[in-house]
Amino acid sequence: MIIFQLNSDSMDFNTFFYLANFVGIISFALSGVFKGIKHDHDLYGVTFLAIVTSVGGGVMRDVILNKIPSALINPHDIYLAIATALITYIPYFIFKPKFDENVVKTAIMFVLVFDAVGLSLFVSIGANIALQNNLNTIGIIIMSTITSVGGGIIRDLLANETPFILKEDIYAILCVIAGFLYKYMIVDLKISEIKTTIIIFFVVLIIRLIVINKKLSLPK
User: Fold this and answer.
1) Is residue 219 part of a domain?
2) Which residues are CB-contacts of 43 (< 8 A; sequence separation ≥ 6)?
3) I want to staple 81 with a disulfide (CB 3.0 to 4.6 A). Which of 10, 18, 29, 36 is the partner?
4) Is 32 among the domain residues?
5) Over the stretch 173-210, which tens digit does the pLDDT of each residue have?
6) Longest dimension (CA), the chain
């Protein structure tokens, strides 16, 4: 069993953890919004996709950990996702007649970019929660992966698409590597949680954006 203890600057890390989750929720919510725009969904459909994308992975993780999902206990993440959807979709709806067919292509790119940001943040959040629950290396990898890709899988299934994780690029592999690195850097190298999260965020984000730009994928 892994004994995980926050260091002396735990309060600073808690603030950092909250901010990382805040940005991650917005990023995943935006990817849900643009997925809805891609399929020409209405306001409810877009908002629902924003919610499930941003909190779906966390809900799946908490259920597996035999806990009441944090999104249901403290629904501020859901409120943030709803606010993000409304702020993004309403201007689009108002000016929609002025858009041409390129808006769908733009929406697809925004889905990928914001999904990359959310993935890069949530993979560390999931790994951190797994550490707090004293999971082993495999458990940490699984929890970090579920937290970061679970919402996107639900989003794509609701949009009647094959999830990104199964077809389009090197997606889940990044989560596996990042989950392992988080455990190794925190437990074995004794690097602080904030530094570890920042390093993993930029490494995963840069690789993910390169994969998107080069349209790389695993062998088929």
Assistant:
1) no
2) 85, 86, 89, 90, 93
3) 29
4) yes
5) 899 999 999 999 999 999 999 999 999 999 999 999 99
6) 58
